[in-house]
Amino acid sequence: MLFTLLNATSSCMFLYIAVLAAIEAKAGFGGYVMASTIGLLLTVGNYWTLNKVFDVFYARVFPNSESLREWCFRAFLLAMFLWIFGAGILGMWLTLSALRLLARG
Hints:
Elements: H1 2-24, H2 29-61, H3 66-104
Helix pairs in contact: 1-2, 1-3, 2-3
């Protein structure tokens, strides 16, 4: 349950930050469409990737002892929590870079 919440939060962070980057860049309608498209692509990609990573992680950790499993899951969830901030930074950087390219051309 916590994994699903963290996965959804980090995925939606991409979309939120993409729209925020368009606001910050004072983009027109085309800029908002481009930022929203980039945000949606990053959102879907992040959600899919994190689900696959969790499947692999679960398959590797499940056969171990319960105490090791618990420790590994806590470390994984901490890494997911920190990824929320990384997703925000990455989303802002990618979207602002794309909007600058759109403004040049």
